[in-house]
Write a structure and sequence with these properties.
mainly alpha, 49 helices, 43% helix
């Protein structure tokens, strides 16, 4: 005998130690043969059992007779399988007699054997013996092992018949556990019976097929179910628990054990969580077949004790990776000593090869336990699919076990499947679905490339705040997870083999040598993913023990460097850099390497197995968003390494990660094929570029970033390798930032035109990114970028607009037009003085403006003659596109590139009245401009010159001009009547008078007689007044002769200019000079260009005030809040802004970066509320305000934070609580119904479209939002229409509520009272409740800011992004502008500011115009207003 094998068999099994070390396990020797087994009693059994199996009354009347018969049955149950009928009768008798313990039931057909009266009277007395005797049914017969019997068809039939008998006994055992009234002895015997049955089938390493395989699964199922019932009714003794543990350790080479263990343990876990955390904790979904596995009335103490014992029943799952430990049982020794030949060796190789699969399933079970404690069981129920973070290998495709309701219906055919692979019958857990695919609740409902798909479409539910701490989970499962995560990386088996001194047998060593440790990588990937989920469940202020962090980092580092497991780590570690984990920076290099392998190409360069590649890319993008700020924020920090490593000596994080992350971002955007994933990728690219811009150093003025000689798009439209261009750049170069801006612009423009033009979400995100890059191109001093690069980007955007507008009519939709409107807004961001100075670029801009306004270009295809304006038919693509093109045209004409916000004039009628001036004349010019003329000099004028002050109100704002008519140049002396004539420096020499010769008289000709003389005509007409005319002619001739004679005697006098005229109609001159008083010059039948308004009409001043209250730029109010840790009430959150020292310094720095403090009273722009906006009051002499001590000073009453550019203006308001004290008539609460009433109750706002007086005339209106009809003049005398309501209202607008909330504890974003906070966000503007957006910001301990945005992101700011504090305010502003613009694009009836102002001007012209003829209009100019 092999001494090594003998020593291994006789050594102690260490799994038996621990909490059961004080108890001995119970023997499972079986029922034995008794006396008949010694003397041979086959004939006795056949004679006795045949009679007892009949339904006739039992002849047994005494206890001794029953005892004797039980001995006969004891031997009969051990008969060979060839005596099937005797075995069947013995089983029938035992089952019938044990049914005496069950409640009375309906008689069965055929009738069962009769129960003896003594046994019916005292069934518990005999139940233990019967249960012990039934052990013999499951004991293998000599010379009838499974491997031998399977050689013949007859043996297969016998095995099937034995399996039927065993199933009957198992059904009886289940019934006894459910319904019988059992005592402690009966429970003990029942459990020992099931343990013995399972041991007989599962302990040997021989492979199982057919009915035997089904029977093994059924035995385990009944064993665990009955055991749970025993824990409820009669808790098993420690000896029984130890026996169960020792036996399960011997069965670990069987896959059904792992399945049933996970099934039962998870059911107990679900009940345990309900007891521990109550009904608010996320419930584990339990299958219907397992809903009653744990009794509903089982006590919490019993559940707790059972759960912990059951969890440790199979020992350490990592032992499955150590074949020498799994084979450390007597059954394996016996198998090796008896099995010989080729088939035996194949069997040994089969069970060794199955350990990797079993280990994988065991780790899936452990992962399911961990997910249950984390409260994410609903999202990770399928523990094999990618949604469960399994990281399974490609070859793990075992058969599945049917659910419980189908297990008994299996066929018991003994036909051996010839081609059936070994150990492929791993049953499926009906609870956790270990081999099922991802459930329908996790599968995306829309295709990945759908236009409506979003990156957050299947956003995982947040973790419950009631979840246990990370340390607690590691206390329970950490030992298994850490050891499993390092499988195959260290020689864990060598030390134990040397210590035991018992090497495995030669045959096992050969099998082990053939087994590659890579087969265990699937289970290792599950362990790594579970570690990531545990560590990423850390709450904000939770501390994780340093040993756990160190072991986790060591495991993750090795997992990231292994292509077989790196995907599983990335999939479940998306938030690892957002959680303030100590020492997590040690993983930065390995994660960047993994991201490069996943995102750089369309197919990841890692082994994904069954992981969903789309989910993997999504997790990688989330990680990328958390890393883009590291090169800037940690630029001077050395790359941390593990002790003893010197891989990155002397390299800083900035030097290592700057170039690599930039390359990953560019490569990912270039390779991404899913539109939904492109949105967060664009955000990552923008943030990467912005952080590199902040990191850029000053360089030589003549150094400019330029592209190669050829652009990124070649002549044939092929795509260049943008990533290669970035890879060639030197990250340490001072020009890296500017070069990256150029490459990013090329890449985004190319993909926008070639791939993304059909998707609204990606197009909007790309255009928003280009708008952000425009600021870098034009305003960053360190980016000396050539003008050609800006021109090229503008031409690309213009081409995008042309392509979108030129699509066939059936392709036009609201989404398409929204993309075009966003493109015009993007072009507005690129406008700057150097760009507009280029003739070609300006021509391209005006072409797209023409295309948007008229629907076509004047310059057609090459060779076609240009179309004149009068020849073109105005058919814009849509009214929204036309409005956007008009806005761009006005910006081009104004050449607005600064953000001073000073184009809005403060001067109006109220200021002039306060200075003592008289009334103004009001005119409407061309139907879209109001001229208010004051024919008086301003009060500060020091010269009483004829002056006119013109206040011009148009769609683009309010402007003021002051014009003076001077009779003398400004060089004249103050107060002098006239200037002295200039004195010549040199006296010119006198000139001789020119000599003129008289022309000779013309000879007469026939032409002279063609025109008759006046005398001849008069005489011919016989006009009686001819004599009078002749007299007048004679008098005039005499006067002229007298004048000629007197000219020689007149002395010339010096000409003196007259005094300046101070009294004349300056308004008439002004209008005449600008061509509005062309008498008879207007077109016949057309409307007059000039229309006078009734300046004395009641309500005109209020109408002008409403017009002035409508800004020319898109106005937005953003409310800023500060939420301390744990605050869930709106009143407490708002009160923080008024308390000294209640806010963090980081919040104050962010607040100061959002905008410039302005006083509401003297501010001429948007101030956050319609009552105080665009209403600059005359300044008052006040002392300078004290330094603001609390953020509530910016609550909108005295000061706000203001920011503006050429198209938008934002007021940042910090509510202080006064908003709720306002009267009800100042509330802006609106109905959420889109087509409901939308009148604001704020009087005087521009959204109040109803008249202030009932007798005011109304102008007919028409629906405009979806119409292509241009504005046309109204009829001369329209009939008053009924008041408009619903979607037909004019000037209708919906502005979203945008909140910036600073969180001390990031977890509080789950419990923010948004609906209550919105009550403090009064702006006077109608809004819709579903368009409220919250941007949550939380500061990490490292100094970075973490951003939480709703699903879909906010333009360049994606959910989960980490930003440097310096860039946070600008990113929040861009996010707020994007959300507001997106809400406007989604609103069908939204009108841009210039359109609303134009409509108000038309309404004023219609309601207050004077019906004057042209002579009456001219006459009125000579009169006082």
């Amino acid at each position: 005998m092999n001494v090594g094998i003998f020593n291994r068999v006789n050594s102690k099994i260490k799994e038996g130690d621990g909490m059961y070390s004080e108890w001995n396990s119970l023997p499972l020797e079986g029922g034995g043969h008794g006396v008949l087994g010694a003397v041979g009693g086959r004939d006795v059994v056949l004679a006795v059992v045949q009679q007892l199996a009949s339904h006739q009354p039992s002849p047994l009347t005494t206890d001794s007779e029953v005892e004797w018969v039980l001995e006969v049955i004891r031997y009969g149950l051990s008969l060979p399988l060839t005596e099937h009928e005797a075995l069947r009768d013995c089983v029938r008798v035992c089952c019938s007699w044990l049914s005496a313990l069950l409640p009375p039931a309906a008689p069965a057909q055929p009738p069962p054997p009769a129960v003896p009266p003594p046994l019916a009277a005292e069934p518990h007395r005999y139940a233990n013996k019967i249960l012990n005797h039934l052990h013999n049914l499951f004991v293998p017969r000599p010379n009838e092992t499974l491997a031998f019997i399977y050689q013949t068809e007859l043996g297969g039939n016998l095995i099937s018949k034995q399996a039927v008998l065993c199933h009957r006994v198992l059904r009886l055992a289940r019934s006894l556990a459910d319904s019988a009234s059992l005592g402690p002895r009966e429970w003990r015997s029942l459990l020992l019976l099931l343990l013995a049955a399972a041991a007989a089938l599962l302990a040997p390493p021989a492979p199982l097929y057919g009915a035997a395989e089904q029977l093994c699964e059924r035995v385990l199922c009944v064993l665990f179910e009955v055991w749970i019932l025993a824990c409820h009714r009669c808790f098993p003794s420690p000896a029984l628990w130890r026996t169960l543990r020792e036996q399960c350790v011997r069965w670990r080479h069987r896959a059904p054990l792992t399945e049933q263990w996970a099934r039962v343990s998870l059911c107990l876990t679900a009940r345990l969580l309900a007891h521990m955390y109550g009904p608010l904790y996320p419930a584990m979904p339990i299958g219907e077949e397992d809903a009653n596995l744990v009794p509903a009335d089982m006590s919490a103490e019993a559940v707790t004790q059972s759960w912990y014992r059951m969890l440790h029943t199979i020992g350490n799952p990592v032992d499955l990776t150590k074949p020498h430990l799994i084979s450390h049982t007597p059954e394996f020794l016996q198998y090796w000593m008896t099995e010989e030949g080729r088939e035996g060796r194949e069997g040994r190789e089969a069970w060794v090869g199955s350990l990797a699969h079993i280990f994988h399933r065991a780790m899936l079970g452990v992962a399911a336990h961990v997910d249950a404690f984390l409260g994410r069981s609903t999202a990770r129920w399928s523990v094999q699919g990618a949604g469960g973070g399994a990281g399974a290998g490609a070859g793990d495709e075992g058969e599945v076990t049917p659910p419980a309701h189908r297990r008994l219906a299996k066929s018991f055919s003994a036909a051996r499947p010839r081609d059936k692979p070994l150990e492929k019958s791993t049953p499926r857990s009906s609870l956790i679905g270990l081999t099922s695919s991802r459930p329908s609740s996790v599968v995306p409902s829309t295709p990945p490339n759908s236009i409506t798909s979003q990156v957050g479409e299947i956003e995982k539910p947040p973790l419950t705040p009631l979840r246990p701490k990370v340390n607690s989970i590691f206390h329970l499962f950490g030992e298994w997870l850490f050891e499993a995560a390092l499988v195959g990386t260290t020689p864990v088996n060598s030390n134990q083999q040397k210590a035991e001194g018992t090497p495995p047998p030669p045959s096992l060593s050969e099998a082990t040598q053939k087994l590659n440790m890579l087969s265990y990588q699937a289970g290792r990937a599950v362990a790594l993913g579970t570690l990531c989920r545990v560590i990423c469940s850390k709450q904000c202020r939770e501390e994780v023990l340093a040993p756990y962090l160190a072991r986790t980092y060591a495991a993750l580092q090795r997992g990231l460097r292994d292509p077989a497991t790196a995907a599983a780590v990335v999939l479940d570690a998306a938030d690892i850099f957002r959680l303030d984990l100590d020492g997590v920076l040690v993983l930065v290099p390995d994660f960047i390497t993994a991201l490069d392998r996943i995102l750089s190409e369309r197919e990841p360069k890692l082994e994904c197995g069954s992981i969903d590649k789309r989910e993997l890319r999504k997790a990688a993008i989330s990680l990328l968003l958390s890393l883009v700020a590291f090169p800037y924020h940690y630029r001077g920090l050395a790359v941390p390494e593990f002790p003893g490593c010197n891989e990155y000596a002397g390299v800083t994080i900035g030097e290592y990660a700057r170039g690599r992350l930039s390359q990953v971002c560019v490569s990912a955007v270039q390779a991404e094929s899913s539109e939904a994933l492109a949105v967060p990728l664009l955000s990552a690219l923008y943030l990467c570029v912005r952080h590199n811009a902040a990191h850029a150093h000053d360089h030589a003025p003549d150094a400019k970033a330029r592209s190669d000689s050829s652009g990124p798009v070649s002549a044939d439209g092929s795509q260049d390798d943008f990533a290669a261009d970035v890879r060639e750049l030197d990250p340490s170069s001072p020009y890296f930032g500017s070069a990256l801006v150029v490459r990013a612009t090329y890449l985004v423009c190319h993909r926008l035109i070639s791939s993304w033009k059909g998707d609204l979400q990606v197009s909007l995100a790309a255009l928003e990114l280009l708008s952000g890059l425009a600021k870098l191109h034009s305003s960053k001093p360190e980016f000396m970028i050539e003008a050609a690069e800006r021109k090229r980007a503008v031409r690309w955007i213009c081409d995008y607009i042309g392509v979108q507008c030129g699509r066939p009519p059936q392709a036009h939709s609201r989404d398409l037009h929204s993309c075009v409107v966003a493109a015009y807004t993007c072009l507005a961001a690129w406008l700057c003085a150097p760009l507009l100075a280029d003739a070609d670029c300006l021509a391209a801009l005006l072409e797209v403006v023409e295309l948007g306004i008229s629907g076509s270009k004047s310059q057609g295809k090459p060779g076609e003659p240009p179309k004149m304006k009068d020849e073109k038919e105005l058919k814009p693509v849509s009214m929204r596109v036309r409005d956007a093109a008009e806005s761009l045209l006005m910006l081009i004409l104004e050449q607005v590139g600064n953000n001073d916000g000073g184009k809005w004039c403060r001067l109006d009628e109220r200021w002039l009245a306060a200075l003592g001036h008289g009334k103004l004349r009001h005119f409407v010019v061309d139907g879209n401009t109001i001229l208010s003329l004051l024919e008086e000099p301003l009060a500060n004028s020091q010269e009483p010159q004829p002056t006119i002050v013109a206040i011009i109100r148009c769609g683009w704002g309010r402007f003021a001009w002051s014009l003076s008519s001077r009779g003398a140049p400004r060089c004249a002396t103050r107060g002098a009547a006239a200037c002295a004539r200039p004195v010549p420096m040199l006296e010119p020499p006198p000139r001789a008078p020119p000599a003129c010769r008289a022309l000779p008289a013309a000879p007469p000709c026939a032409v002279d007689a063609a025109f008759p003389t006046l005398d001849a005509v008069l005489r011919q007409l016989n006009d009686p007044e001819a004599t009078t005319l002749f007299k007048l002619l004679e008098q005039q001739a005499a006067i002229e002769k007298k004048v000629r004679e007197s000219e020689d005697n007149v002395v010339p006098e010096e000409c003196v200019p007259p005094d300046p005229v101070t009294e004349f109609q300056t308004a008439r001159l002004f209008l005449s000079h600008f061509g509005y008083l062309n008498i008879g010059g207007d077109k016949k039948g057309g409307p007059a260009r000039l229309c006078a308004l009734d300046s004395r009409a009641e309500g005109l001043s209020a109408a002008l005030r409403r017009l002035d209250a409508t800004g020319s730029r898109a106005a937005l109010t953003v409310h800023v809040f500060y939420a301390r840790a744990g605050q869930t009430r709106a009143t407490d959150i708002v009160a923080n802004a008024s308390q000294h020292g209640a806010v963090s310094p980081a919040f104050v720095r962010m607040l100061r970066g959002l905008g410039t403090p302005v006083r509401v009273r003297g501010h001429a722009g948007w101030s956050g509320h319609v009552r105080s906006s665009y209403d600059a009051q005359p300044p008052r002499d006040e002392p300078p305000p004290p330094e603001p001590l609390t953020p509530s000073v910016y609550d909108g009453r005295e000061q706000v934070l203001y920011w503006s550019d050429s198209t938008d203006e934002i007021a940042f308001v910090v509510p202080s609580g006064y908003e709720l004290n306002e009267t009800d008539d100042q509330s802006d609460s609106m109905k959420s119904d889109v087509d409901g009433s939308c009148c604001s109750v704020n009087r005087g706002s521009w959204w109040d479209v109803s008249g202030e007086r009932d007798d005011r005339r109304e102008r007919p209106d028409k629906t405009r939002a979806l119409s292509l009809e241009l504005e046309r003049p109204a009829p001369a005398a329209p009939a008053p229409p009924p008041p408009l309501s619903g979607s037909g209202r004019r000037n209708r607008d919906f502005t979203p509520k945008i909140l910036i909330i600073w969180l001390e504890d990031f977890e509080d974003h789950l419990n923010l009272p948004i609906d209550e906070l919105v009550r403090y966000c009064e702006t006077g503007v109608p809004w819709r409740r579903h368009e409220s957006s919250a941007l949550c910001v939380s500061s990490a301990r490292g100094g970075l800011a973490r951003v939480r945005v709703r699903a879909g992101g906010a333009g360049v700011l994606a959910d989960g992004a980490l930003l440097a504090p310096r860039l946070l305010p600008a990113a929040l502003r861009r996010a707020a502008c994007f959300l507001a613009r997106r809400a406007r694009l989604n609103t069908d009836l939204y009108q841009p500011p210039h359109v609303r102002r134009r409509h108000l001007i038309q309404d004023i012209a219609q309601q207050y115009k004077k019906d004057l003829t042209e002579p009456e209009l001219l006459e009125s100019l000579f009169k006082a207003p």
